[in-house]
Design goal:
Helix content is 36%, strand content 15%.
Length: 192
């Protein structure tokens, strides 16, 4: 069974919150010290997972940008820092078999993005689990009003996609997308 978190997250309150009742932009980054235990994988498994994740991420961005073009929104540019924050959260969701915006360590989307070095003025996040393809997860987000608003908002300039697979969990496929604005230039992602 696939599902999205109740709402995409966009907050104005600097206090840590996992969700907000109204989608509004976050305005200040939060300090954080986030540590995530590394997953014990062989180098070959890491390379295979990275290649699959990169291919899926490219397709997610292409599909989101195609939807954005239909309403004259600028295309989102992939940023390595947002990607690192999204990948970290997707791996955390898979490791804990979770589906929520709060990290297993209590971190918020804003804190994870800040920890990754992205100096944002705007940040929002979508998460989902159980969708095996980029097409399916983008379609699910597009059909959810809060997630669609994050995807179609004129505020973000950059995007980062995280994907993790873990076959021993309920949903197996875990997705995180971080949307952001702030730095003038995106840090390029090697596979994009």
């Amino acid at each position: 069974m696939a599902r999205c978190a109740e709402r995409g997250v966009r907050c104005v309150n600097p206090a840590p919150r996992a969700t907000c009742p109204v989608p509004i932009a976050m305005r200040r980054p939060l300090p954080s010290a986030i540590l995530l235990a590394p997953l014990l994988l062989s180098p070959a498994a890491i390379r295979t997972a990275a290649a699959q994740s990169c291919t899926l991420a490219q397709e997610v961005v292409e599909r989101m940008n195609a939807q954005r073009a239909k309403v004259d929104r600028r295309p989102l540019v992939v940023d390595a820092r947002l990607t690192a924050a999204a990948q970290r959260h997707a791996a955390d969701l898979a490791a804990g078999d979770l589906l929520e915006h709060a990290g297993s360590d209590g971190s918020t989307p804003a804190a994870r993005v800040s920890e990754a070095g992205y100096g944002w003025t705007f940040v929002s996040e979508n998460v989902a689990a159980g969708y095996a393809t980029a097409e399916a997860v983008v379609q699910a987000w597009f059909l959810s009003p809060g997630h669609r608003e994050n995807m179609m908002s004129p505020s973000p300039v950059h995007v980062g996609i995280g994907y993790a697979f873990r076959d021993s969990t309920k949903y197996q496929h875990y997705w995180t997308v971080n949307f952001g604005a702030g730095p003038a230039d995106a840090e390029p992602v090697a596979c994009m």
